[in-house]
From TrEMBL:
Function: Catalyzes the formation of N(7)-methylguanine at position 46 (m7G46) in tRNA.
Protein name as annotated: tRNA (guanine-N(7)-)-methyltransferase
Annotated organism of origin: Hermanssonia centrifuga
Family: Belongs to the class I-like SAM-binding methyltransferase superfamily. TrmB family.
EC supergroup of this enzyme: transferase
Gene from which this protein is expressed: TRM8
Biochemical pathway: tRNA modification; N(7)-methylguanine-tRNA biosynthesis
PROSITE patterns: SAM_MT_TRMB
Length: 274
């Protein structure tokens, strides 16, 4: 029964692509959660230099560019699709652990590249700057991104893992923050948003306690021209839209990756005040 449904879904997906229609989520059903600690038989590069981005961003091969924005746990890809036309020269990557969901995003991007290229002759290569990998970001982030290569890292409506014994599965943790600080360049921004207040406090407190991150206010980011990114963070994702439909509240917390010498500067000031 399940197998027949899968075959049917695969056939429908193929038909959609043939007709260049946008994929429909109902053909990509999957369990709500995937265990980040289990072995998902994932393929991943041994190191960033082993990663071949040419099939992801064929229009950018000659530029030698690598992704600068990473959407961790991108779900159905709403943020990437919203940001792609705003930053047409910036490569963006979604990382998603669930098979069907990442397949949906991949099909969505292919369909958008094709249909938009036909309908928008003025800009012949839309959505070429956006792609997805099926990956466990909690295990393999530094396999994909070289040191300091990212300017933005997004954690939008991450799985809350409510029970205390499950907190270790949360995507923000002291160990993982070291990896995020490694791949983010100084001045780069971590955007987090959630509708779960306890998770918001958790993410904020862990980021604030980590020496290489400093909180940055929403107004300051807007003043720096990052308003469109913040708007997309609030409202472009499927989960964000669901929260809106349910009249839920959203909590945003953004942090800047700082230079280690700024930590020394802060320490010096502190010592002089003693
Ligand atoms: C609640 S959804 C939010 C999706 C999306 N960011 C949004 O706002 O609509 C969390 C997503 O993170 C994915 N995820 C959870 N752990 C992950 C991991 N370790 N690596 C990659 N994706 C993960 C889940 O499969 C799920 O699609």
């Amino acid at each position: 029964m399940v197998k027949r449904k899968r075959v049917q879904d695969a056939r429908q997906r193929q038909q959609q692509q043939e007709q260049n229609l946008l994929p429909q989520k109902r053909h990509y059903r999957q369990r709500a959660h995937a265990n980040p600690f289990s072995d998902h038989a994932l393929e991943y590069p041994a190191s960033p230099s082993a990663m071949d981005w040419s099939s992801h961003y064929p229009a950018f091969v000659s530029t030698g560019k690598t992704p600068e924005f990473a959407d961790v746990g991108c779900g159905f890809g709403g943020l990437l699709i919203a940001l792609a036309p705003m930053f047409p020269d910036t490569l963006m990557l979604g990382m998603e652990i669930r098979v069907q969901v990442s397949q949906y995003v991949q099909d969505r991007i292919i369909a958008l590249r094709t249909t938009s290229a036909i309908s928008n002759a003025a800009s012949p290569e839309p959505y070429q700057n956006v792609s997805i990998v099926r990956a466990n970001a909690m295990k393999f982030m530094p396999n994909y991104f070289p040191k300091h290569s990212l300017s933005s890292l997004f954690f939008l409506f991450p799985d809350p893992h409510f029970k205390a014994r499950k907190h270790k599965a949360r995507i923000i943790s002291p160990t993982l923050l070291a990896e995020y600080a490694y791949v983010l360049r100084p001045g780069g921004i971590v955007y987090t948003i959630t509708d779960v207040h306890d998770l918001h406090e958790w993410m904020k407190s862990h980021l604030a306690a980590f020496p290489l991150f400093e909180p940055v206010a929403e107004e300051d980011l807007r003043a720096q021209g990052k308003g469109p990114i913040i708007d997309a963070v609030y409202s472009s994702t499927e989960e964000g839209k669901k929260v809106e439909r349910n009249n839920g509240q959203k909590w945003l917390a953004c942090f800047m990756r700082i230079e280690p010498r700024r930590i020394l500067g802060r320490l010096n000031t502190h010592l002089h005040q003693e």
